Amino acid sequence: MRFLISAGFVILLGLTALAAGDTTPPVSTHEIDPVPNAEGWNNTVVTLTITAEDDGSGVKAIHYILNGEEHVVMGDTVQIQLGKDGVYVLEYWATDNADNVEAPHHVIQIKIDRTPPVVFVEAPEDGAKYFLHQPVEANWYTFDTLSGIATTEATRLFGEEILTEDVGFHEFRVKAVDKAGNETVVEVNYQVVYKVVPMGVQNTYLDNPLPPDEREPKGRLLLFARYAHGDLIGISFALKDYFDEVYPNGVPSLTVTEVKFEGTRERHVIWDWLAIPYDPDSGIYRIYYPTAKRKPGIYDLWIGFGDGNHVRLRIEITAGKAEG
């Protein structure tokens, strides 16, 4: 009697015999890509790879429990993509074709934080104006709900006084980095200005302004004063700090432009730029501008205080005696 035995049957018998003699469980390992930083955190998508080996009957499956949910993947390799913020707790083990079960690898943590810290700056306020020498305490804070704050840097520490010793525009910066390496930078801009006190007639900057009810529109601005050709235009004001102390070291200026009207448009021709000197006897900044240098017409006086602010006054130089 003849028996026909197929090749597949022979292989099956061989595997069965091999499995019957395999009493050693498989060995599995895992890799995390990219590896966590020194604080144990990742701030990118993480690829978790579990690989098992078995020199006997071969690996049958990989079992893993991720945050309490069990999964079974047939074969000797499994890859898992983790992208959401959180702390992942992993256990895993492998089984072979002889039903040997590897002892589980317990409580492996994978920590992902892809969210930058939060930074609030309450003082200085963005766009705020503070007077020269005004006491203003820095008020800011940071927090991170997952990995936590690792480092902070700031122009001034919380509770310290910000810079108001110099007029002009200033930047205040706070930088926070969390333990996962995420970074947040907040920059606010503020301005330090003088208390400007007009010292001219009628609490204005000029020595001869028109009465308020006579200031009629002349182009885009009200006509503020009239001077006869040959008159001097007196301009005066005081610069003070937050405590009402006179500040003698300012650098105010006067810019004179002639206004040319072209239909509804205005064109300006710059004629003069002059520093306005400080009079130590009166504590006032004062200048007398000679109208004899200019022909009759409409002019704008741009008084700059040196702190980023200015006032603009429209005047008329007439050919004869000034009106008003």
Written account of the structure:
It is rod-shaped and about 125 Å long. It has one helix at 7-20; strands at residues 27-33, 41-42, 46-53, 59-66, 69-74, 77-82, 86-96, 105-112, 118-123, 129-131, 139-143, 149-154, 168-178, 183-193, 195-198, 217-218, 221-228, 232-240, 253-262, 265-275, 278-279, 284-290, 297-304, 310-318. 4% of the residues lie in helices and 52% in strands. The protein starts with 6 loop residues before the first helix and ends in a 6-residue tail after the last strand. It has 324 residues and is mainly beta. The protein contains one helix and 24 strands. The strands form six sheets. It has a six-stranded mixed β-sheet with strand order 16-17-24-23-19-20, with no helix packed on it. A five-stranded mixed β-sheet has the order 2-8-7-4-5, with no helix packed on it.
> Main sheet: which strands, in order across?
16-17-24-23-19-20
Q: In the residues, how many domains can be counted? A: 3
Q: Which term fits the overall shape? A: rod-shaped
What's the average pLDDT? Answer: 93
Helix content: under 10%
* CATH architecture annotation of the largest domain: Sandwich
What is the rounded distance between the termini? 140 Å
Largest sheet: 6 strands, mixed
Based on helices, strands and strand pairing, what is the structural class? mainly beta
Secondary structure elements and their pairing?
Blueprint: H1 7-20, E1 27-33, E2 41-42, E3 46-53, E4 59-66, E5 69-74, E6 77-82, E7 86-96, E8 105-112, E9 118-123, E10 129-131, E11 139-143, E12 149-154, E13 168-178, E14 183-193, E15 195-198, E16 217-218, E17 221-228, E18 232-240, E19 253-262, E20 265-275, E21 278-279, E22 284-290, E23 297-304, E24 310-318
Parallel strand pairs: 2-8, 10-14, 17-24
Antiparallel strand pairs: 1-3, 3-6, 4-5, 4-7, 7-8, 9-11, 12-13, 13-14, 15-18, 16-17, 18-22, 19-20, 19-23, 21-22, 23-24
